[in-house]
Amino acid sequence: MTDIHEQIRRRQLRDNLLANYEGTIELRVERYLEITHNPIIPNHHFSQASAECISLYSDGYFLSAVMVTQAVVEGIRNFIVERNKIKPDENMDGRALVGLLAKNGIISQEIADAFDRVWNSFRNDVHHMNPKVAEIPFREIAKRNIQDLAAIECEVFEHEIRNGRIIPLNPKYWAVEANGTMPVFLRLEP
């Protein structure tokens, strides 16, 4: 008897999920087209999470998109610090660290501003689920954070494609092998 109930439950769940997906597909497409992203980035520990920001936004999970963009941007910041062998002061917060990167010409001021916007997008309120989260316009912030993340990735992982090959313009941020190959993360259209 339980087997039949499980089959019925499974079929109802499938039908409900399919109806929900079909009913929201146009909204998902519109949201996907609202944002830009880089189709090719190096395959690092934060690459999958970066790709998930796009899916979260297009699927309408704006609060989650905000949280993940914040985490990815912090991960990229730390990655830049590590690759440039910078030893920050223990008391240095994220904003000061980004300022140091810009001051030393490691990132542009425009990208430093993008890091700051993401950092200042209610980070503590969101990550600690403070009461203020009830008032935050998550869709707008998620969209802006994703645009800022794309700009950061575009500068940090800048590359050209020549004769079908990816040529990193900042090779220290790519895992280039001795033979010139490198692992990449492709984010092509779904």
Describe this structure in words.
The structure is a single chain. The protein has 190 residues and is mainly alpha-helical. Helix content is 59%, strand content 7%. The protein is built from seven helices and four strands; from the N terminus they run H-E-H-H-H-H-H-H-E-E-E. It has helices spanning 2-34, 47-58, 62-83, 94-103, 109-119, 123-127, 138-156, and strands spanning 40-42, 159-162, 165-168, 184-186. It has a two-stranded antiparallel ribbon. A two-stranded antiparallel sheet has the order 2-3. Strand 2 (159-162) and strand 3 form a beta hairpin. Helix 2 runs antiparallel to helix 7 (138-156). It is globular and about 65 Å long. The relative contact order is 0.16.
What would a concise description of this structure say?
This protein has 7 helices and 4 strands.
Oligomer: single chain
Structural class estimated from helices and strands: mainly alpha
Beta-sheet strand percentage?
A: 5-15%
- List how many beta strands DSSP finds: 4
Task: Name the helicity range.
Answer: 55-70%
Name of the level-1 CATH class: Mainly Alpha
Tally the structural domains.
Answer: 1
Which value, in Å, is the CA radius of gyration? 20 Å
**Main sheet summary:** 2 strands, antiparallel
Low-confidence stretches: none
Biggest sheet, spatial arrangement of strands:
1-4
* Separation of the first and last Cα atoms: 40 Å
CATH topology: Four Helix Bundle (Hemerythrin (Met), subunit A)
Shape: globular
Average pLDDT figure: 93
What is the N-to-C succession of helices and strands?
Answer: HEHHHHHHEEE
**Known CATH architecture:** Up-down Bundle
How many helices? 7
